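seq as requested:
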Amino acid sequence: MDVTSILVPSVQELAKEPLTQVPDRYVLQDHETAALSNTTSLPQVPVIDFAKLLSPDLNLKGHELEKLHFACKEWGFFQ
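struct tokens:
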């Protein structure tokens, strides 16, 4: 069985010329978004407020530290 693929320009190639509109292949149509919203929800990426980690309020600091611990344990280290 022969397999052929569609030639798709890379982002670098697209960026070389100014675009007046987003290429159709990168646009999600309304009927496609409806199908996505009916699927199981994706996990929420943890958001850590580093200012709260430095807070003098021990409850605030502790809660944020728990979120940081969870993020490192369940998601791996962050960038």
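The longest helix spans residues 58-75.
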